[in-house]
Specification:
Layout: E1 4-9, H1 16-26, H2 28-31, E2 35-40, E3 55-58, H3 67-76, E4 82-86, H4 91-97, H5 101-112, E5 117-120, H6 123-131, E6 140-142, H7 150-153, E7 165-169, H8 178-188, E8 194-198, H9 204-211, E9 217-221, H10 226-231, E10 235-238, H11 247-255, E11 259-262, H12 267-273, E12 276-278, H13 283-291, H14 302-310, H15 312-326, H16 334-338
Parallel strand pairs: 1-2, 1-3, 3-4, 4-5, 5-6, 7-8, 7-10, 8-9, 10-11, 11-12
Helix pairs in contact: 8-9, 8-13, 11-14
Length: 339
Amino acid sequence: MIPSVVHLVDDVSPGGVTRLIEHIARSPAFARFGVHRVETVKRGRLTPPQIAADVVVSHLSICWSNLPLLTALRAAFPTAPLIHVEHSYSERFHALKVDAPERFAALLRTAYSLFDRVAAVSEEQAGWLARRRFVAPDALAVVPPCVDLEPFFAVAPRRPGGVTKLAAIGRLDRQKGFDIVVDAFRLAEVPGLELHLFGDGPERESLFRRAGGDRRIVFHGFTADVAGAMARCDAVVMPSRWEPYGLVALEAFAAGRPLIASTADALAGHVRAGAIGVGDGSHFGWAEVLSRLPTTDLDAGVRRARLHAAAAEGRFARNWQALLASLGAAPALVEDRAA
């Protein structure tokens, strides 16, 4: 019997998590091993919604205000498998944003213990969760996410020659590090190079001021058409300070656009997959990399990265089926049964 799988969310703002869950709910590959539907829950609610499900998947924020809800969810489903997908926290977040480490550790260990499995979205995030003993080893899974990549594979190949337009895509907040790349861009002074920012958020005005009226730095505001944004540019930059996964990287790979990224958290994995890494995450380090763009072979890793992206949707579905199978909620994969 195909199980009913309910995905609980408390953040429906435009972004990677929303698109990921929409992909799960619509994907024919996921329909083969589960009937997936999405239920929105108000953050801070004390009790879970009245739902009927064989498996409950939490995409909820792990915070003190949500802890009563998570506890009540476990009580409401004492025998059904509960899975939490950790979209928010990472090692660099822990280092840069947590002022009370012991209290934060208590929160994570308490919340994660309520679930049968905690799904990390990258190997790097899983390593951090394991090293800090936030999750019991037998409860930790790794399920790198994916979205519908078809629009990105449909993007026309970039024109031959050097890079003239860089794209920075995402929410304009401290996490994404766009202040770093704006400062680096102005410092590098590469002739003919433009920086295009697609997104909105709390650092919008601050970034405007940093740009200093430089006409080579163009603000486009929020766009739902990320593939279209990539089609207009030659390469993508991700100067994030922390990044549990970073879907923009996978989308850039699929679009055949060179990716230049910091090595924070899961971005190190994207560098191994074909991105160009900026080991020094300061604006000086970024300026050095940008200044070398005219003589850098940006296409060296693009083919390998695109092959990685081409296999991503299949990996995502197989990892989810294996996760449900490990809880007795879905048939095992063929290769697992053969073993």
